[in-house]
């Protein structure tokens, strides 16, 4: 299993980036950061940790329903230079272990110093005999103050540090070293490209490395650690962002599944048959910022509740038997409902999942508002877009009001008068099907037998169009087929899941009209970025057209433009470099850790 492999070690950036121009480009950034670190702290950094952002090619808002997604790492990344803090007349050794002095190359992020607090707790502190335990069975518990209501840039650094402290410094025999760190990065914040996950991954890696705890850490374990660490800032992630940042390899995406357990499969994207016929991903920031905290009640949190309730109602309408764990306190997900519908033991193969999705889509009409109201004797001129009321939703769930609110509303705040069970379910199931079709196209292209979908698709029918086979399909045809799925995905996000916004709808339409094979929102939506599949030979022309037509891009030049719209290819996952005895641009020295992690 790849998850159990040790972390590989590179000796040159040219091993990480075979393209010498790309190696030189990234090498310059590493050198600049090392030089700035030395200027600020008086010594070279011992290590530099690097973690990329990610773009989700397809599979939006279905991970918390436990369906698979299809992300890839991007070239843009977070870099963290770090080194043990040396004692000097101006920077004396701090009295507390593990003190961190954190700075950022961006002036708007002010320097911070923080020290983890230590308390000794018993492994059996909840037992009456706690006071009788010998000190040898006591462990250390570390705490860092993170205000989730007012997250700052250093909160994500602390989150990565938290997991390292409480996993590797649990005895009184060893303490973390005082550390200086300097953070830099070019993943746009708040754009849906997972800058926060990249920051937590890089922080976790940096604190592991500087404390000499990286040896023996498995690839899959780093993913799990980063997922747990990000919960410290209030992000309950399913693991897609961290897995993509850590496990990715160049020219490949990841098919990540969450049920019955987290796993990932590297899938190569179709390659051009001729030079110049390849594609790149172009990420474009709509420059609409969606405040996840302010909008959670009416957006993200609401969608989670709607999909969970829809799963319970659908299972009742189809008379499915769910596992006991999904029928009491734990609300079932739509993926678990599909598993019960298919009736096969897990894990279920992709082909069987695809066939099951196509069948169950024909039955979700039972979730329409008219069908649910008809069961309780409400008839009249129905508007399906209205959805159902809270009372109607509770009735359809088969639960009492108190039990319903305990299971579905006691742990999350939502705000709505109407709930869209049918529309949300249709998006999730059709999007899950599109992910499987996207994967199938990519796998087929490696054997030169590509399953082609029509270039126009619609979410108005209960299931996506079926595919036809052509053994003579070209790479261009494959790109068109992938683009069609991306377009259908955006249409579904906009009309069924209602997680787009006018600016994203406009931006994706402009992208298609400017030569993209396909374009869709990526990330949570309600703002943030789009991702477009663009012919590599037309990238400059494409960006120029989008810049001239999208109102928020007009007048932007140089770095300002490059920050809001840029081309990238699926890139390498997280890695680090140390020690810094030589230039990053030469082949000497010991360049450390490619975290090109994937678990199969």
Automatic annotation (TrEMBL):
<comment type="similarity">
    <text>Belongs to the GHMP kinase family. GalK subfamily.</text>
</comment>
<feature type="domain" description="GHMP kinase N-terminal">
    <location>
        <begin position="165"/>
        <end position="248"/>
    </location>
</feature>
<protein>
    <recommendedName>
        <fullName>Galactokinase</fullName>
        <ecNumber>2.7.1.6</ecNumber>
    </recommendedName>
</protein>
<dbReference type="Pfam" id="PF10509">
    <property type="entry name" value="GalKase_gal_bdg"/>
</dbReference>
<dbReference type="InterPro" id="IPR006204">
    <property type="entry name" value="GHMP_kinase_N_dom"/>
</dbReference>
<dbReference type="InterPro" id="IPR014721">
    <property type="entry name" value="Ribsml_uS5_D2-typ_fold_subgr"/>
</dbReference>
<dbReference type="InterPro" id="IPR036554">
    <property type="entry name" value="GHMP_kinase_C_sf"/>
</dbReference>
<dbReference type="InterPro" id="IPR013750">
    <property type="entry name" value="GHMP_kinase_C_dom"/>
</dbReference>
<dbReference type="InterPro" id="IPR019741">
    <property type="entry name" value="Galactokinase_CS"/>
</dbReference>
<dbReference type="InterPro" id="IPR019539">
    <property type="entry name" value="GalKase_N"/>
</dbReference>
<keyword id="KW-0067">ATP-binding</keyword>
<dbReference type="InterPro" id="IPR006203">
    <property type="entry name" value="GHMP_knse_ATP-bd_CS"/>
</dbReference>
<dbReference type="Pfam" id="PF00288">
    <property type="entry name" value="GHMP_kinases_N"/>
</dbReference>
<dbReference type="Pfam" id="PF08544">
    <property type="entry name" value="GHMP_kinases_C"/>
</dbReference>
<keyword id="KW-0418">Kinase</keyword>
<feature type="region of interest" description="Disordered">
    <location>
        <begin position="84"/>
        <end position="106"/>
    </location>
</feature>
<feature type="domain" description="Galactokinase N-terminal">
    <location>
        <begin position="36"/>
        <end position="84"/>
    </location>
</feature>
<comment type="pathway">
    <text>Carbohydrate metabolism; galactose metabolism.</text>
</comment>
<dbReference type="InterPro" id="IPR000705">
    <property type="entry name" value="Galactokinase"/>
</dbReference>
<keyword id="KW-0547">Nucleotide-binding</keyword>
<feature type="region of interest" description="Disordered">
    <location>
        <begin position="453"/>
        <end position="474"/>
    </location>
</feature>
<dbReference type="InterPro" id="IPR020568">
    <property type="entry name" value="Ribosomal_Su5_D2-typ_SF"/>
</dbReference>
<keyword id="KW-0808">Transferase</keyword>
<feature type="domain" description="GHMP kinase C-terminal">
    <location>
        <begin position="479"/>
        <end position="551"/>
    </location>
</feature>
């Amino acid at each position: 299993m790849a998850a159990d492999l040790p972390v590989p070690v590179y000796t040159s950036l040219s091993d990480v980036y075979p393209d010498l121009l790309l190696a030189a480009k990234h090498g310059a950034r590493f050198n600049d950061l090392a030089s700035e670190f030395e200027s600020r702290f008086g010594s070279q950094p011992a290590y530099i940790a690097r973690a990329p952002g990610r773009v989700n090619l397809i599979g939006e808002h279905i991970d918390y329903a436990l369906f698979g997604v299809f992300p890839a790492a991007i070239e843009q990344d977070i870099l963290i230079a770090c080194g043990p803090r040396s004692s000097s007349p101006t920077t004396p050794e701090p009295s507390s272990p593990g003190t961190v002095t954190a700075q950022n190359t961006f002036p708007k992020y002010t320097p911070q110093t923080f020290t983890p607090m230590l308390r000794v707790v018993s492994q059996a502190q909840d037992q009456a005999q706690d006071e009788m335990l010998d000190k040898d069975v006591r462990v250390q518990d570390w705490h860092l103050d993170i205000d989730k209501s007012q997250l700052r840039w250093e909160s994500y650094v602390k989150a990565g540090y938290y997991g390292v402290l409480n996993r590797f410094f649990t005895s009184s025999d060893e303490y973390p070293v005082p550390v200086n760190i300097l953070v830099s990065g070019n993943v746009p914040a708040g754009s849906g490209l997972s800058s926060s996950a990249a920051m937590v991954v890089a922080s976790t890696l940096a604190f592991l490395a500087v404390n000499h705890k990286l040896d023996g850490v498995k690839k899959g374990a780093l993913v799990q650690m980063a997922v747990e660490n990000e919960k410290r800032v209030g992000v309950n992630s399913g693991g897609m962002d961290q897995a993509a940042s850590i496990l990715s390899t160049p020219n490949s995406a990841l098919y990540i599944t969450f049920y019955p357990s987290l796993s990932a499969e590297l899938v190569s994207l179709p390659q051009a048959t001729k030079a110049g016929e390849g594609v790149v991903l172009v990420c474009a920031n709509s420059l609409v910022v969606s405040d996840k905290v302010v909008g959670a009640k009416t957006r993200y949190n609401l969608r989670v509740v709607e999909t969970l309730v829809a799963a319970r109602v659908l299972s009742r309408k189809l008379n499915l038997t769910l596992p006991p764990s999904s029928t009491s306190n734990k609300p079932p997900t739509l993926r678990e409902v599909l598993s019960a519908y298919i009736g096969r033991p897990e894990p279920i193969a992709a082909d069987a999942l695809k066939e099951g999705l196509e069948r169950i889509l024909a039955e979700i009409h039972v979730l329409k508002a008219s069908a649910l109201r008809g069961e309780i004797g409400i008839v009249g001129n129905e508007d399906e877009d209205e959805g159902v009321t809270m009372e109607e939703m509770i009735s359809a769930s088969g639960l009492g009001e108190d039990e319903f609110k305990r299971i579905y509303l006691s742990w999350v705040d939502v705000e709505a008068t109407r709930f869209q069970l049918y529309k949300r379910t249709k998006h999730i199931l059709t999007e899950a099907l599109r992910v499987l079709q996207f994967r199938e196209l990519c796998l087929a292209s490696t054997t030169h037998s590509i399953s082609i979908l029509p270039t126009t698709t619609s979410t108005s029918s209960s299931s996506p169009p079926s595919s036809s086979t052509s053994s003579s399909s070209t790479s261009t045809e494959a790109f068109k087929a992938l683009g069609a799925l991306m377009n259908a995905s955006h249409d579904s996000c906009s009309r069924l899941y209602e997680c787009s916004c006018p600016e994203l709808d406009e931006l994706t339409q402009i992208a298609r009209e400017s030569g993209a094979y396909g374009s869709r929102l990526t990330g949570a939506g309600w703002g943030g970025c789009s991702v477009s599949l663009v012919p590599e030979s037309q990238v400059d022309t494409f960006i120029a057209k989008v810049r001239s037509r999208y109102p928020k891009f007009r007048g932007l030049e140089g770095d300002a433009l490059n920050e809001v719209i840029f081309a990238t290819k699926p890139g390498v996952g997280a890695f680090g470099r140390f020690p810094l005895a030589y230039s990053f641009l030469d082949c000497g020295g010991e360049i450390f850790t490619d975290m090109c992690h994937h678990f199969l």
